[in-house]
Amino acid sequence: MGEVDPAFFQTLENQPKLETTEAEGIPIIDLSSLNSSNTDAALSSLVAEIGDACKKWGFFQVINLGVPLKCREKIELVARKFFALSKEEKRKIIKDEVKPLGYYDTEHTKNVRDWREVFDFTAINPTIVPASHEPEDKELKQLINQWPQYPPELREACEEYAAELEKQAYKLLELISMSLGLPKTRLNGFFKDNNSYIRLNHYPPCPAPDLVLGLGRHKDGGALTILAQDDVGGLEVKRKTDGEWTLVKPTPNSYIVNVGDIIQVWSNDKYESVEHRVIVNSDKERFSVPFFFCPEHSTWVEPLEELINIENPAKYKTYNWGKFYANRRRSAPVITLSEAIFALPRGMQIGF
Ligand SMILES: O=C(O)CCC(=O)C(=O)O
Ligand SMILES: [Fe+2]
């Protein structure tokens, strides 16, 4: 990625301002009280903090999520080792239409190429999804993870991390459910055979950090994203109050959590899925590992009935998660996703 191909250039309005403000305001929430005292008062204050953060930012950081440090260190190490391999080696597990999991280095967001390479795998292997995006086609297929030969310990590190994150994701889901005034486990049933996946992101140093983005502006389409970032920084969140791009300063051993489009729909806009993007820098490479917590493919997503009434009617029509995702995967590299969306009404635009 030495030369900067104009395919990477952002339009003027999307070019990053490199002297961005740091998002001091993104709350850091300590989950240690969940595992220890667990008094009613401690739990309600945690739930209130989470609800406030979801409303104000759509984002929050958590410390003491419960993922063992070793487990995180292991996946970070294998990610470094994997991306350090030659292109030729990495491309042995390239993802394509037939095999949509694996390595990829020509990702586009809204038609502009991202300055990054990725490796994708699902948390449950194999994962069952619709065979096509066609609404009438009832056929299902299995997505099977592709594992590289090197480093040999990558598979185990990834599988352990996936299992751990899935476990901890329920904790966050339950807190969010409570923050919406719903029973703790109201949302859990949607995730039985979930379609969650994990991405290893590598953003190499870039000679033109003012013209390109590691990842263009987008919203996450799943329910929740739980992201581990290294100490380099680069994630920017669009602040709801004034639309400014604000950098999320790395906090050691924390996870950045954001509400995806599904929670926006379930909550009938009480919580919004907020745009974010990644800037790159000229001398440092950066790694991040998002876990996308996504429901089972058969889930029909719609505003929860407890959260709508005559004064606050449903703002979204029902859509099928599996079909929606199949459609998105099909079209993401070529056309903007708003053009591909067949089920989401009211101009809801979802990035990759
Ligand atoms: O790398 C990051 O900080 C963010 C990644 C992200 O937003 C995504 O993969 O959807
Ligand atoms: Fe994202």
Automatic annotation (TrEMBL):
Residues 193-295 form the Fe2OG dioxygenase domain. Keywords: Iron, Metal-binding, Oxidoreductase. Coiled coil: none annotated. It comes from the Eukaryota. GO terms for biological process: coumarin biosynthetic process; response to molecule of fungal origin. GO terms for molecular function: 2-oxoglutarate-dependent dioxygenase activity; metal ion binding. Belongs to the iron/ascorbate-dependent oxidoreductase family. This is 2-oxoglutarate (2OG) and Fe(II)-dependent oxygenase superfamily protein.
